[in-house]
Design brief:
This protein is mainly α. Helices cover 69% and strands 0% of the residues. The chain contains four helices and no strands. Helix 3 runs antiparallel to helix 4.
Amino acid sequence: MDPSNFVNSVTGIVVVAIVFAVPIIAVIALMAIVLSVVNRRHKERMKMIEQGMMPPRPRKQKGNYYGLLITGSIFFAFGLALFAGELAGEAKDFTGGFIFGFIGLAMLACFAIIRVARKNEPADMPNSGSPEPPPLPPRP
């Protein structure tokens, strides 16, 4: 079947619409979930403030940098595999192996730099666990 005839057929149009609709719907659903979570947190904080309570400060979370290690290792191994495949096939185009290999090496270097920087950071002082009291109203 000729590709142009396939796209012009009803089946082709339906297949193309489904292929593009799934990622678009997934992105919209993810945005709706994130917005509902943010809205729920906001309403909780507003309710606490209305009742005279001091909402806790948002915690500063440190990101997990081990994803760089895993992704960098996978990219580096994939680049080595492409490079070895090109060598075994006696081909002259090593670009794919070099690209993935160097991306993997860059991610591994980022992991090492972040790990060293995190070890050199001073430890956070644990607070007493109670939030700061609200400010007193001005006296007349």
